[in-house]
Structures are given as structure tokens and as C-alpha cells.
Amino acid sequence: MVRARSEDYIIDRKTGFYNRRFFNYRLREERLRTERSGSPFSVLKLDISHLPDLIQKRPELKIHQMKKVITNIIRNNTRDIDIKSWHNDTMLKILMPQTSESGALILAEKLQEMVNDSLETFFGLKGVFHRTKNVAITSYPEGMEIAEESPEPERSMVKKSMAKPPIRWANKRAKAPER
Predict the structure, then answer these.
(1) H or E element at residue 138
(2) Of 34, 57, 74, 95, which cross-links 83 as Cys (Cβ 3.0–4.6 Å)?
(3) Distance between CA atoms of 138 and 150, rounded to whole angstroms?
(4) Is residue 116 part of a domain?
(5) Tens digit of pLDDT for each residue in 119-165?
(6) CATH of residue 89
(7) Cα separation of 114 and 64, whole Å?
């Protein structure tokens, strides 16, 4: 009973993937692990926001069917250690620990082929899912190095102390008033 309740907090019941909050938590953990050990990881983002516009009849119903088809493809072609999450109805993110950019690229190409085959089979859409348009890959520690190299904009404001300096109690003798 306790296990079922705890799974409700991290798993989306509709897709069986992790929810957005848990994905972001694991992403932070993975970045900390990478800073410590230097081991790579990649994040693969799949955006299907333009696909419902290609369907003329009832696109609002078709997006959920597309999401179900893509969910099954992702589930069958990723590892158990990969963290998969739908961030909204049209954006899927996959966190792949111990995966460099080249490994993520191989998966992206494989997913492109399989998603296109499924969209053609179920919806009659040919070649509408492209790796360059619909997939973005961010790899770490390469992504962390780029973020560190970019200089932060200088701030024009001078920092002001919000608190007054501490009161110093001096142990001085009181001077007698001059007469």
C-alpha cells in the first residue's frame, strides 16, 4: 500500500512515465554526479507540437493517440535506467545517464525512423518527424562547460548591505565633561 502511494507521487498514471517534478529532481542529481565524477549524461527532447496541425479532422483527439503511440515506442526502445517524462502534451524528455552525445544521437535517429513509421501507419503522415526539427540533444559535461565559459552579464547595480553593521560595545572609560 505504501509503495503504491509513493509511486503515485513520481509516476504519471496515463503514460507510466515519471512526472515532471521527479524528472527535474533526477536531472539535478545527475548534474551533481557529473560535477563530482565527470561521467557524461544526455537529455533528449522530443517536440511534437506541430504534428496535430497536420491532421485535418479532430486534431485534439489525435494528439492523445499520437502521444500513446510515441510513448510505446519510447518505452520499447530505451533502457530502464533512462528517466522518461512528458512535460506537457507535446514535449517528451528523456534523461540518459552514462550516455554521451554520440549515444544520444544514435537513439534519436532510431526514434525518428520508428516514429515516422508509426505515424504513417496509424495517421497516414509520411516523414513528418525530423531529427533536426523535432529532437534536441543536450549532453553533459559538454553542456556544463559551455555554460561555464559564457560570461555572465555585468550588473550595473552596486550591492548594498541590507543590515546595519553590528553594534560594537566598547569598554572605554567615559570622559568627564570639560569645564
Answers:
(1) strand 135-140
(2) 95
(3) 16
(4) yes
(5) 888 888 888 899 889 999 999 987 555 444 444 444 444 444 444 44
(6) 3.30.70.270
(7) 18
**52 occurs within a structural domain:** yes
Q: What is the DSSP letter of 9?
A: H
| CA–CA separation, 4 and 44 (whole Å) | 29
Q: Which helix (H) or strand (E) holds 24?
A: helix 20-37
Question: How many domains does one find in the chain?
Answer: 1
Three cell numbers written together for 33? 554526479
Residue at 96 is within a domain: yes
Q: How far apart are the first and last CA of the chain?
A: 87
Q: Across-strand partners of 27?
A: none
| Amino acid found at 176 | A
Residues composing the chain: 179
Provide the grid cell at 162: 541590507
pLDDT digits (tens, 9 = 90+) for 119-130: 888 888 888 899
Task: Strand 83-88: give its sheet, edge to edge.
Answer: 83-88, 91-97, 41-47, 135-140
- In the block, residue with C-alpha cell 553542456: 143
Residue bearing cell 517536440 = 47
Q: Is residue 49 in a domain? A: yes
What residue numbers bound the domain in which 102 lies? 2-149
Percent helix / strand / coil, the chain, rounded to 5: 45, 15, 35
**Residue with the three cell numbers 541590507:** 162
Q: Which three cell numbers stand for residue 98?
A: 552514462
